[in-house]
Task: inverse folding
């Protein structure tokens, strides 16, 4: 038994080396995307909620997301990647390709209002999720995360990380075209 203990570090090393090699192979072949997080919500209705809008006294609910294809962007002023993606979201909203909604996640509402006033507001409506409950229902692991929601209010995709034109064209446009084709039938 004493000699077997000597081989434990070697076995652990070999196991970790095999795991690293398997992941490296997937990465080099383009089959691994660390931002492609699975979501139990794909194909399911957007979670029910009733929360205040950031720029108004009214409350909104999930019915806001029905009737048109939209994206829902989870963001916060404390999130550096949100700062990176914000100009793209402003440009996307100006292009009018898709309705853009926001969820201000675990943030200070006054800071969020100041952010939008100074950097532009891409969101048709911005939902205040101060407690993070809606984020929890969505399975949010951090900001930013973006969800594609079809006109029936079903979640079709979840993307974690900052958006830019390249990511939009590669990951979102094909799905939006597919949804448009499905809904036209």
Result:
């Amino acid at each position: 038994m004493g000699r077997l203990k000597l081989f434990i570090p070697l076995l652990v090393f070999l196991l970790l080396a095999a795991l690293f090699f398997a992941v490296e192979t997937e990465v080099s072949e383009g089959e691994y995307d660390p931002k492609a997080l699975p979501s139990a919500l794909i194909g399911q209705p957007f979670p029910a909620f009733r929360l205040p809008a950031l720029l108004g006294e009214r409350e909104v609910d999930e019915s806001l997301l029905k009737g048109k294809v939209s994206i829902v962007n989870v963001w916060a002023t404390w999130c550096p990647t949100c700062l990176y993606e914000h100009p793209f979201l402003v440009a996307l909203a100006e292009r009018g390709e898709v309705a853009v909604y926001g969820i201000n996640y675990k943030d200070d509402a006054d800071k969020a209002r100041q952010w939008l006033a100074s950097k532009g507001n891409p969101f048709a409506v911005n939902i205040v999720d101060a407690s993070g409950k809606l984020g929890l229902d969505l399975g949010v692991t951090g900001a930013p995360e973006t969800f594609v929601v079809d006109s029936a209010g079903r979640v079709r995709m979840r993307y974690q990380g900052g958006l830019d034109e390249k990511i939009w064209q590669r990951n979102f446009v094909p799905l939006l075209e597919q949804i448009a084709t499905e809904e036209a039938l």
Summary: The longest helix spans residues 2-28. The chain has five helices and seven strands. Residues 50-184 form a domain with the Glutaredoxin fold (CATH 3.40.30.10).
